[in-house]
Write a structure and sequence with these properties.
The chain is mostly helical. The protein has 3 helices and no strands.
C-alpha cells in the first residue's frame, strides 16, 4: 500500500504534456513512415498462404 502511495505522489512530479506539445510532436513525425498495421493481409489470404507453404513442404 505504501508503494502505491509513493507511485501516486511520484506521478505528480512527472511532466504533463499540453495539447500543443503533443500536436507539435505529432507534426514532427515523418509522414512517409509505414505503420506495421499497413502490412496486414486478410485472414483468408493468410490461410491460403499458409496452406500453400505446408503443402509444398510435404
Amino acid at each position: 500500500m505504501s508503494q502505491l502511495v509513493k507511485w501516486f505522489k511520484d506521478a505528480f512530479d512527472l511532466p504533463v504534456l499540453s495539447i500543443e506539445e503533443v500536436e507539435a510532436q505529432v507534426a514532427e513525425t515523418p509522414t512517409g513512415v509505414k505503420s506495421k498495421h499497413e502490412e496486414n493481409i486478410p485472414l483468408n489470404d493468410l490461410i491460403a498462404q499458409l496452406s500453400t507453404e505446408t503443402n509444398s513442404g510435404e
